Amino acid sequence: MQWLLIVSAGFYLCGSFKRPLFAGGLLAGAAYLAGRGIALGRLPLVGPHDTLAFFSVSLGLMALPFLFAPAAPDSAGFRRGAGLLAALFALLALLFPAFAMPLPPVLRTFWFELHVALAFFAYALFGIGAVGGAVFLNGGERRLLDLQYRALLVGYSFFSASMVAGGIWGYYAWGTYWLWTPKELWTSILWLCATFFLHLRLRGGGGDRLAAWGGIVTFAVALFTYLGVSILMRSSHSF
């Protein structure tokens, strides 16, 4: 079934030229996740392989409105960047083994699945916003900044909801809504970072280039929160 991830990455990359092919990449990635979910009997949200594959699908899903909406900017650079980002994480998933271990009791709750799914949707939207900002800085049209703002705003809403769901899950799992582990600390840093740049953009201070860089920095912090903390630091979260 892992060949579907390769197909998905190929379609994402070809989607730089034809937007319907981008949708094909999403369908192939979603088909892989569905197969994994059926085999495991649960959502595939545990371990680097499954989370990277889920992240790739989340990127494809969250990019669709920005690629196919009537007011979407006709930017080949944005399509190329979104496709490259989604393809990258699909291929990275292949570097890790696909485990079929049963969930520990602490993870067998709706709140865990909701927390993780919303977090990855938020990460994906931060990624889409970063692509929009990078293309703008490289000479793209100003509408890409509006795209970036919408992506960050919706991603911020998803991430805030994810933190609430994570707190409820933490209460059921450990008897407390918050643990000061590295993952929780960087979750707070990411939320504050997104809050700051959204406020800056709303107030109109700092100029267009600073707003574009703000979206890129927010995604960089999101990547460190997801991958950096999991790889470099000991935490209650593995991935």
From TrEMBL:
Query: Which parts of the sequence belong to the Cytochrome c assembly protein domain?
Result: 57-233
Give TM regions.
21-39, 51-69, 81-100, 120-139, 151-173, 185-203, 210-233
What superkingdom heads the lineage?
Bacteria
How this chain sits in the membrane, per its record, is: Multi-pass membrane protein
Q: Which organism is this entry from?
A: Geotalea uraniireducens
Main location (coarse class): membrane
Q: What UniProt keywords are attached to this protein's entry?
A: Cytochrome c-type biogenesis, Membrane, Transmembrane, Transmembrane helix
What is this protein's name?
A: Cytochrome c biogenesis protein ResC
- Which InterPro entries would you find in this protein's record? Cyt_c_assembly, Cyt_c_biogenesis_CcsA/CcmC
Q: Which Pfam families match?
A: Cytochrom_C_asm
Location in the cell = Membrane
- Keyword match rRNA-binding: no
